[in-house]
Amino acid sequence: MLLREVEYARPASVDDAIRLLSEHPNARALAGGQTLVNVMKARAAAPDILVDLNRLDDLRSVGVTPDGGLELGAMATYTQLVGSPEVHSTRPIVAEVASQIADVQVRNRGTIGGNVCSADPTNHFLPLMVALDATMTIAGVDGQRTVPAEQFFLGVYFTAAGPGELLTRITIPPARRGDGFAAVPIGADGTCIVNAAATLEEGGARIAIGCVAATPVRATEMESVLSGADVSDERISEAARGLGASLDPPSDVHASADYRRHLAEVCAVRAVRHAAGRS
Amino acid sequence: MTETTVAPERTETEAPQRGYIGVNVPRKEDKRLVQGEGLFVDDVKRHGMAYVHFVRSPYAHARIASVDVSKAEALDGVYGTLTGDEVAELTDPFFQIAPPPGGHVKDYALAVGRVRHVGEPVVAVAARTRELARDAADLVEVEYEPLDPIVDPERAADPDAPQLHDDVPSNTIWNGHFDYGDYDGALAAADKVIRIKRLHFDRFSSTPLETSGAVVEYNRGTGQWTLHCNNQFPGFAIIMMAPALRTGMDKLRFVSQDVGGGFGNKICTHPQLVALCLLSRKLKRACQWTEWRTEQHMANSHGNERVFLDVEVPVTDDGLMLGFKARMIDDCGAYTRYEPLGCIIWAQVTPGAYRWRNVRVEFTQVCTNKSPCGPNRGYSRMQHLWFTERVMDVVADELKLDRVAVRKKNYIRADEMPYETPNGCIYDSGDYALCLDKALELVDYESIEERRREAESRGKLLGVGIGSTLDSGTNNFGQATLVNPELQYSVNNEVASVKLDIFGEIVVTLGTTPQGQGHETTAAQIVADILGVTPDDVNVRPGHDSYWNSHAGFSGTYASQFAVTGLGAVKGATEMLADQIRTLAGAVLGGVPPEQIELAEGFARIKGNPEAALPFMACGAIVNANNAVLPLELRDITLNCRYVYVPPHQLPDKERKYGNLTLTYATQIHACVVEVDEETGSYEIVDYGAVDDCGVRINPQIVEGQVHGATAQALGAATHETFAYDEQGNLLTPNFYDYHVPHALDMPPLKTGYIESPSPFTPLGAKGMGEGGGAGLSAVCSALQDALRPVGRPIVYDSCNPYWRVWEMLRDPAKTRENVEVETR
Amino acid sequence: METAPVDSAFVSVQVNGESYEREVDARRLLVHFIRDDLDLTGTHVGCDTGNCGACTILLDGEAVKSCMLLAIQADGAEITTVEGLTHDGELTALQQAFSDRHALQCGYCTPGMLISATYLLEHNEAPTEAEIRKAIQGNICRCTGYVNIVEAIQAAASGEVKRD
């Protein structure tokens, strides 16, 4: 409802931001704020200092890498992604999924970096980043390091970007055979019950399921069945069999664990078909 | 003893000429609202005002061992606190509507000694800013000793269930037996008997977008409080509050202007208002409180949850249902505020839209460790009407009868109106079968089988459903005596004052507290027709102020009654004013009899001689400032007329629980088409037709708006909106993430139609129709059951069907069928 | 502004063309700054979780929810609230269409709804029904079922608006 007392800093540069974050152990980077401010309103989080990244235009770039992949500044907004020609020409799934996040007001403000760093397990971008095999660039006072998406998500609201560090960039490899995404939200656009993202590669697939654990889960068995060239509907359905049973999803007011297991199979199949449909 | 109720007399008075009645007059309210210039409660500010935050219970049930506010009070910027102990000392418990044992519930403004639901206010903290009040709340130390909660209403009366209130054994607030017609005879005459073990109506609320709130000022010189608030039924609130505060009713002045939706949820705000009264007196400053969204979900009025057990329906071979028997358990949550009135309100629509003559109901209301219930759009009737519609579909489907034909066979017919129900209610007018035909036409019912096949080809299950409900309006409060014979309530009333001011301005004050229903506009339409002016010439004061002296005991905006009671009062007051103007003008124009004076274009003029005319401005000036012009015998003309509309109700028969409980019944027959994704259980409403009949439509656009809104709320409640609790009594849907209300993308395009069956009993032939009876709830459940039929014929038992419930029906339809049984005689 | 952390600061904003400067605590939400400090009460609060959109404003031309931003972040910004839509007392086509089509009942969601609709029409002159619904998906209305709101936005876009 209302935030606890907090200090605010507006760094002049990315280095400045990293310095502030490293000097103050309970400082948090403030990106779009569309999750963090909410969590602070509920007093579920109470950093001492907010380091506002919103005026660091360096972090807002969206570009194509020399090898034809995507390089997304952590502060690129969903609206930027939805309208970006670079995204559309490389991995359009990123724009499609961005357009399904919340609503236009949130998309205008919310950023991909803020999204993945808040690591809300019901979010669409978590499984998508894993399926796309994105790489996270994390900067600290001692320089920068890269972490694959799969190792970036560590728990609910918990990522590999540690204290004093800042996620600056997300790199997505060049297009593969096709990308797909599927979700079952509450109503047309409510909280997500289960989602899944898939990328079909030459001789393989990467499939990640969201909302079934604290972090996205790779459907490795299913991936291995789909390692061949056959991505017929029958093959995909067959590959998903047993996926649900391999999961241990939570039960809550929106779905029992069993329902989530079932939806995980359905969403995985749909995401792969979606990917196959454009390969 | 006569077997029939005395039907109200048909209204003899001439309805005003239909000048502005039936016209889409643009709303007077809109100009300020589209510019952000409305005045809602949180917009009210006072010098030195304190912001109040309530410390709330994290437990569903616990003893309060200690409360320590010292740290909170020591925080810089904190003005003070209020605790339950202070409340217990300074106030008396709120009056209880229930007779004992339910009447033994002790309900205060803050928890006293014990908390009974998560979110119950325990301490109030007042500070200089919103943020500081919230900070200080964190510093209040409350020590709780947790007790076992009771959450499940079906277990609340068990011998081993934890007891919420001293002297309320078995958590049973109220229990009553309703027996109408000859149920045993009907059972004996039946060819088939359908039994349904359990139906369940979920807990939800309309969750108005503006939460509850108030700014309360205390006048130390006069001992009077002014409450700027969004309470929607000040008449009720004052009756509850004044005795609790040990003060006179006139010491509580209620003021509101714009209210951001009410839907009944803003009726029972009196506990928080009392806390604010005490705080403002204690701190000698205005105290402001605005509820947060999560607080509204946790602790504001919820709609009643209800379970229907051991349902039995005797049916003849040709599909005529002879009545029903059921055991109903209603869950009112932790405290009884408006309850147990819900235990009788359903009986306004005992047989629903049907010719069911034999009814036996055992009705029990229990309390549980959940948020207290209160009126919610369609209050208590919606639950019951949903039950009647579920019965209709289950019986039709089990007996393989056509759902449309079986409805038409059982509907009360237009030629039977006015129709007396088995419990003595008089349905005034309507044509349900015609409305059904129109609703089916709107969704192109003829093509359903074709669309079913087309959907199937896309992996979707398509189904069509019907909801037939009634919106009973203009309560007879005498029904309260059927839950508590000692109560001295009966009939109903509403007030309006209309005056002609010194410069000829027509000023109307209402007793109501509108929340978007356009009262300023429709009142102006009525006044304009009677006085021969335009609605633009009529100034209707926005909002409510109890110091306008334009209210009575039942004043407020609730229960679909403005078009009858509110406009009835406006009509009465305006006719009084018109008579006075005619008398005055006749005298001034040379002794012309009043009946020869006509009112038109802002003049009182002699019929047939438009040259001989007195402008309204002159009339106003004479009476207000220039009385010498008037002969002495006309000096009692005030041009300021107050009229109380009182409907022609009588006291019902307490012994037999028999009588006419409401004046009028609007009809809603809705048809809905859903498509279910067989793989996931998710579904979409793809087509929707709503046909409403609310008698004379004063402003059709406003009527349509009410239909849209009531339908949207019903669709939300049918699909995702539920206040679900875990076993420990924690609310699982405390915000709009988990409590998913319809967004623009969720709503199907609504097609609407109407017929007009004027009420023979109301002043304008209008019926009132704001609540809508929840037809959409029934229609969605009906459509789902139809859609799922090919997959093992599961039965829809719950009013709210989120995707997981649909998936469970798809997964195990046989399990749902264990609940139903057909006996052939 | 200093790079060093502060617990309050002077904030300068242009709201509806007027300049304001106020000292605010770092934790104050932009919506409370607008309502409580600037006394512009047309912008409403309907939830505490950023779902309802009643607090929608234009911040440097972008539709945002003012309950999800700190006031201190808005320093130097140009803001439009519902009070700033009307020019010289004349309702905009959208405001007029909302009234004509009965697109508001209690009027509580209306300010945010109008801002979202204004933003839509600035970016898309002739939106389809689906585009309109998508554009207002973040604005909850509990009264109208959105039927007349969608119609009003369509009417305003196509110029079918009655004028007095």
Q: How would you sum up this structure, described in words?
A:
The complex is a heterotrimer of chains A (279), B (825) and C (164). Chain A has helices spanning 14-23, 36-41, 78-83, 85-90, 93-98, 104-109, 112-118, 125-131, 149-152, 220-225, 233-240, 257-277, and strands at residues 7-9, 27-30, 49-52, 62-64, 70-73, 135-140, 143-148, 153-155, 158-159, 166-172, 178-185, 192-201, 204-210, 217-218. Chain A has 279 residues and is of the alpha+beta class. Chain A folds into three domains: 7-52, Uridine Diphospho-n-acetylenolpyruvylglucosamine Reductase, domain 2; 60-172, Uridine Diphospho-n-acetylenolpyruvylglucosamine Reductase, domain 3 (2-Layer Sandwich), CATH 3.30.465; 178-277, CO dehydrogenase flavoprotein, C-terminal domain (Enolase-like, domain 1). Chain A is globular, with a radius of gyration of 19 Å. The model of chain A has no long low-confidence stretch (mean pLDDT 96). Chain B is an alpha+beta fold. Chain B folds into three domains: 30-38 and 493-645, Aldehyde oxidase/xanthine dehydrogenase, molybdopterin binding domain (Aldehyde Oxidoreductase, domain 4, 2-Layer Sandwich), CATH 3.30.365; 41-147 and 211-259 and 266-299, Alpha-Beta Complex (Aldehyde Oxidoreductase, domain 3), CATH 3.90.1170; 176-205 and 301-478 and 652-820, Aldehyde oxidase/xanthine dehydrogenase, molybdopterin binding domain (Aldehyde Oxidoreductase, domain 4, 2-Layer Sandwich), CATH 3.30.365.10. Helices cover 26% and strands 24% of the residues of chain B. Chain B contains 21 helices and 30 strands. In chain B, strands 3-5-1-12-9-10-11-22 form an eight-stranded mixed sheet, with helices on both faces. The longest helix of chain B is centred in the C-terminal third of the chain and has 27 residues, at 562-588. The two termini of chain B are 36 Å apart. Chain C is α+β, with helices and mostly antiparallel strands and 164 residues long. Chain C has two domains: 8-84, Ubiquitin-like (UB roll), CATH 3.10.20.30; 93-158, [2Fe-2S]-binding domain (DNA polymerase, domain 1, Orthogonal Bundle), CATH 1.10.150. Helices cover 30% and strands 16% of the residues of chain C. Chain C has helices at 30-37, 93-100, 110-123, 129-135, 147-158; strands at 8-15, 18-25, 56-59, 62-65, 78-80. In chain C, β3 and β4 (62-65) form a beta hairpin. The N and C termini of chain C lie far apart (49 Å). Chains in contact: A-B, A-C, B-C. The interface between A and B is medium-sized, with 24 and 28 residues.
